[in-house]
Amino acid sequence: MSLPLLLLGTVACTPDRDQPSAAGPSTSSSRPSPFEDCTSLVAEPGAATDGTSKGDRLPELTLTCFTGGAPVDLRDIPGPAVINIWASWCPPCRKELPAFQRLSEQTEGRLRVIGVNTQDSRSAAQSIGEDFGVRFPMLFDQGKAFQRALERSAFPMTVFVGADGGIRHIDTSGALDDAQLAELIRQHLDISVPA
Question: What's the CA gap between 98 and 95, in Å, rounded?
Fold first, then answer.
């Protein structure tokens, strides 16, 4: 990819362009959230890993569930998991969200697909979820704490987490399609995704 195209892609997803006003997740909305509840994200007691992992662990960070309820500690999410960081004002983020929804349906019970909406308004994120039929669990990170902890600021960003909780790969290559997601999951998590 040439440098001008790379820079254009970076400029297209900067928070200063087309970003709606920041409003945190409020549980008092006039319409129901399209996203699943986050209660299924936290490991059952006794489901902890043995403490060894092949990569860095998820940061010690607690995020709010988009639908309300108890906050979710990222380290309590059992792997394997794919975590997609996105914003409604980012065109590549919007482009790839349907592929993540299909992935969540194809790998149900074998792989957790989780969204982290950041630097966004609740209404804009909810509208995108409704428009694209996104239903997988969604966390809310208004202040980019997750990206800061990972020391990366790209949009979109996808984090591949192994069964042991170790980060196997962080992808910032742009909008991922079904085939690219399947290949990255096979390569980094050793899970086959049906075509």
Answer: 7
**What span, in angstroms and rounded, lies between the C-alpha atoms of 51 and 159?**
19
- Average pLDDT estimate for 166-170: 95
**Is the pLDDT at 17 greater than 90, yes or no?**
no
Whole-angstrom distance, CA of residue 69 vs CA of residue 124: 20
The fourth-level CATH superfamily of domain 54-189 is Glutaredoxin (3.40.30.10)
Cα 168 to Cα 80: distance, rounded to the nearest angstrom: 10
pLDDT of residue 195: 74
